[in-house]
Amino acid sequence: MSSGHRDTAPLAGRGLRFAIAGIGLVGQRHAEAIVQVPDVCLCAIVDPSDAGKAAAQRLDVPWYDDLPSMIHSEQPDGIILSTPTKLHVEQGDACLAAGIPVLVEKPLADDLKAATIFVEQAEKADVALLVGHHRRHNPLIRKAYEYIQNGKIGAVRAVQATCWFYKPDVYFDVAPWRKQKGAGPISVNLVHDIDLMRHLCGEITSVQAQAAPSLRGYENEDVAAALLTFENGAIGTISVSDSIVAPWSWEMTAHEYPIYPTTSQSAYQIGGSHGALSIPDLTLWTHEEKRDWWTPISATSVLRDTSDPLINQMAHFAAVVRGDEAPLVSGREGLRSLAVVDAIQKSAKSGELVRLGDGHTENDPTNAVGRATNMKETKAKIAN
Ligand SMILES: NC(=O)c1ccc[n+]([C@@H]2O[C@H](COP(=O)([O-])OP(=O)(O)OC[C@H]3O[C@@H](n4cnc5c(N)ncnc54)[C@H](O)[C@@H]3O)[C@@H](O)[C@H]2O)c1
Fold first, then answer.
1. Does residue 257 sit within a domain?
2. What is the pTM of this model?
3. Is residue 377 domain-shared with residue 269, that is, in the same domain?
4. Of the candidates 67, 92, 119, 179, which lies 20 to 30 Å from 104 by C-alpha distance?
5. Between the CA of residue 275 and those of 38, 227, 269, 374, what are the distances in Å?
């Protein structure tokens, strides 16, 4: 599948050269992923810090302290932006101006309006844009999606998602941007879970949220919860904290990255009219005979592949750059998840319910016909 009208012919038959801007916590993982992808090499690092310079030396690639000079000298085939969130749009614009495809870390931006303009410009310029919601590249999410789509749990009626962990003070001290406005757990962490909720359960049409200010004195919340309404009629509850000691988060249950200890718990529970699925442990719960709370219910472990989603994402980015695949998480998709996060922030601040559907969802939930059709589908699934 082609990602658009970009001329990708000059890339045929040669390896791709990718550059990374921001070689911090996640940038280093991208560097490790590049090594694992055939026909792709790391050609440069942009990171003004001493640690960034040292990383470039260690990885034996040219080092730059600013993005435009790197683009000018190296003309890479693709750029990974893993810089602090507030830099994403400005640096993304520089990539677009040079016509270079970009993989931008999540969240797409710290400002919805700026992110919207950025995505529109990428679409207009026909420059490929992939947003780093890497969990979608995890085979277990592919399997969960397949099970839900194939009706294994019937109509999705409710979802519960928990994202609780304790980030130590040093996490904030080594990168002070993490203490500043716009970098709290709603923006940095919950956006991952929102992306997966949208992917697995459908578009979100309204949110009602509450948040508590950081007890450590940072500029953001340290606990938040939201009630979500989906356009198919499902209801969700989702909660995040970077200051709770707990085993219930994707990080500690998905076994995705060895720096996190693993637990045998799960982070999401998706409840349907015919069964329930917990994720990431992928356990399917169904009644053995008929749907009835007085009949036995049993758990089945769903078989799935395992592979590193960061590597899968990088291989996909290479395919996107070559024009062989369309972005799995496009700029538009990243924007929709950001719109939900923005609505959660607004609702937490105002105490009001915030409706989405202002153009950020394909099936505009304010469109009564579209909503009625979705509800009709849900009713049909429940009855069967
Ligand atoms: N996909 C994921 O699981 C995941 C995980 C962590 C972080 N993130 C996202 O990645 C981004 C970076 O987060 P992090 O925790 O790795 O941050 P970090 O602070 O560890 O790394 C950011 C790096 O960017 C560098 N930098 C600062 N200004 C720069 C500039 N102008 N040009 C180039 N480099 C510059 C810093 O020196 C630092 O090395 C954030 O948007 C975050 O939300 C995603």
1. yes
2. 0.92
3. yes
4. 179
5. 40, 22, 11, 20
Q: From the alpha carbon of 87, which atom of ligand 1 is closest?
A: 31
Domain count for the chain: 2
Tokens 């799995």 identify what position?
A: 328
Categorize the per-residue pLDDT at 13 as very low, low, confident or very high, splitting at 50, 70 and 90. Answer: confident
Tell which residue, 239, 115, 137, 250, has the closest CA to residue 182.
115
Of 251, 238, 275, 264, the closest CA to residue 160 belongs to 238
Question: What is the rounded distance in angstroms from the CA atom of residue 25 to the CA atom of residue 330?
Answer: 23
User: Is 113 in the same domain as 149?
Assistant: no
Look at ligand 1, atom 6, and give the residue with the nearest C-alpha.
Answer: 26
3-class secondary-structure state, position 92: helix
Same domain, 212 and 269: yes
Percent helix, strand and coil across the chain, each to the nearest 5 = 40, 20, 40
Q: Which atom of ligand 1 is nearest to the CA of 175?
A: 19
Distance CA 326, CA 101 (A): 12
Query: What integer pLDDT is reported at residue 197 of this predicted model?
Result: 98
How far does CA 325 lie from the centroid of its chain?
19
